Amino acid sequence: MLPLISPIDAAALLADGKAILIDVREADEFSSRHVPAALSRPLSVADAGPLVCGSGIDMIFTCLSGGRTSANAARLAALAPAGRGHILAGGINAWGKAGLPLTGSSQTEGAAPLPIMRQVQIAAGALVLAGVLLSVLAAPAWILLSAFVGAGLTFAGASGWCGMARLLAVMPWNRAAA
What we know:
By secondary structure, the chain is α/β, with parallel strands linked by helices. It has helices at about 5-15, 25-30, 65-70, 75, 90-95, 105-110, 115-135, 145-160, 165-170, 170-175; strands at about 5, 20-25, 35, 40, 60, 85-90, 105. Helix 7 (about 115-135) runs antiparallel to helix 8 (about 145-160) and helix 7 crosses helix 9.
């Protein structure tokens, strides 16, 4: 697994050119607030292959709070050279609390659309609820809508690829933010 690194230690490595910072959040989250030197590589495309950087360069992975990077440490470790990967302890929230620079602010986040994963949760919940209600009130076959959404969510959780997130990302309200 990947060891944790404090924001202060990570900032020192970045300043010395001994590391790169990779933000694994989705593009809409990254655009609203991130560490200025960070590269965006969402988890939804993390399996596109290993990242390439100079020899002796560490890779530091981050997300908002550290939860996503910790939960996906094995996947992320495969992207970094052996022994050269780290997880930013506490994510960009801890980075900001340490007084280190961030682009954007919580004020600009409110102007952006909801994060894609929240949109997925709202859409999936609404579809499941509609399927259940329609199966009770109209025709039992509508339960298949809920089953389809449940299967899609299970696949997304197991594979890291979410078709609904991809579909929502191209919606007009999300394209304007990207």
